[in-house]
Description:
Elements: H1 2-19, E1 28-32, E2 35-39, H2 42-51, E3 56-59, E4 62-71, H3 80-100, E5 108-116, H4 126-140, E6 147-153, E7 161-170
Parallel strand pairs: 5-6
Antiparallel strand pairs: 1-2, 2-3, 3-4, 4-7, 5-7
Helix pairs in contact: 3-4
Amino acid sequence: xxxxxxxxxxxxxxxxxxxxxEAPAYPVLLPTPGGEVIIHNARGRNAHDEVGYAPAxxxxxxxxxxxxxxxxxxxxxxxxxxxxxxxxxxxxxxNRTLTAAGATFDDVALVNSFHVxxxxxxxxxxxxxxxxxxxxxxxxxxxxxxxxxxxxTSGLLGEGGIVEIQLIVHSPxxx
Length: 175
């Protein structure tokens, strides 16, 4: 009986172990004409494969980083302190993308930010959003400030979205 049980257990485990695939090491760099797509995690890979979203794409010496959304997650507040934590979370996400591409916030040349000024996810004023974003930015960058365009909008794709941050970075490919 023990031999039968062991045989059944092995037959259940061995095929699944043989079929298991190793997760790819990140970042994944996908060659493109004149550059590459940079994917720093499995979620980014799924978005790339399912809807054609590239977290970042290098073309020559320029790195284009797709918008990352500052959002209010379930259970989070909509006040200034919550917004600051939400911005910091999004900046950390952007930092992982930049790091995967061999860049830093000091390399950022242009920031485009898209703000839902009037919505249920943030109760502060417009300038408070900008001031918080600038303060958190300084935690990630000690270099010269990038050019920055802030645009108001009525909504963002991401659920609970407050701000979407897009970056254009001077970042020659590292060899």
